[in-house]
Specification:
The chain has about 230 residues and is α/β, with parallel strands linked by helices. Helix content is about 10%, strand content about 30%. The protein has 2 helices and 26 strands. β1, α1 and β2 form a beta-alpha-beta unit. The longest helix has 15 residues. The termini are far apart.
Length: about 230
């Protein structure tokens, strides 16, 4: 039976999700993306990849569908929406590109997005509502928490743990057996060679913490000078 899917978010990220679902459908998966919901009034009535923007997010209960994908990049916003939709009994589906290579024993939670060229090696557990972005690689026996975003081109070594809500920036590398705490951020190109505490921002090669505070979705920078981990 074909699953009619609503995509929540019609920006660039939403269009990547739409492409994944269309590619998956072309490869025999029972998905039929029917359109986007987006709160940006300028997107109402427009189309992207041949799919219409059908209304704001609040219209999700008014449109017949069998599943939703949350296509919002901000981890905290995505997490809140995920929890709300789960409480309402929505089916939150995964969007997995047919070119992704996923070991047979990998566990993937609901609502997770796996983009083109992603590799997930044996023993890894991927949480709910995660973004594994284009061309990232997750080595063996990783634990990726809920609501994490692993950006394009990231590589993790074996036995890595990424805490819930964290963002690992474009092209970063996480060395084997390292841990990144919940709701932390690794900057683009960072080399994470030591454990990163929760709610910490690290940048550079090797990665070092910035003296910042994470307030909601914002970073409050106290100094531009990194200090030793």
């Amino acid at each position: 039976m074909t699953q009619r899917i609503l995509i929540l978010g019609a920006g660039g990220h939403g269009q990547v999700v739409a492409d994944i679902l269309l590619q998956a459908a072309a490869n025999g998966n029972p998905y039929e993306p029917i359109g986007y919901l987006d709160d940006n009034p300028r997107r109402q009535g427009t189309q992207a990849l041949g799919l219409p923007v059908l209304g704001p997010l609040a219209a999700v209960s008014d449109i017949s569908h069998e599943g939703v994908v949350i296509a919002i990049g901000d981890n905290r916003v995505r997490a809140r929406l995920f929890d709300t939709l789960q409480q309402r009994g929505e089916t939150i589906v995964c969007a997995i590109h047919p070119t992704a290579i996923i070991a047979a024993d990998v566990i993937i939670g609901p609502g997770t997005m796996v983009c083109a060229g992603v590799i997930i090696n044996p023993g890894s557990v991927i949480g709910a509502n995660v973004i594994l972005n284009t061309g990232c690689t997750i080595d063996h026996h990783n634990q990726i928490g809920d609501h994490v975003h692993i950006a394009p081109g990231v590589h993790t070594g074996g036995n890595v743990v990424i805490g819930a809500g964290s963002l690992i920036g474009i092209g970063a590398i996480v060395m084997p057996q390292r841990r990144v705490g919940a709701w932390s951020i690794a900057g683009a190109g960072a080399l994470i060679h030591r454990d990163v505490p929760s709610e910490t921002v690290v940048v550079g090669v090797p990665a070092r913490p910035l003296r910042t505070r994470i307030v909601g979705n914002d970073l409050r920078l106290n100094t531009t000078t990194p200090h030793d981990a």
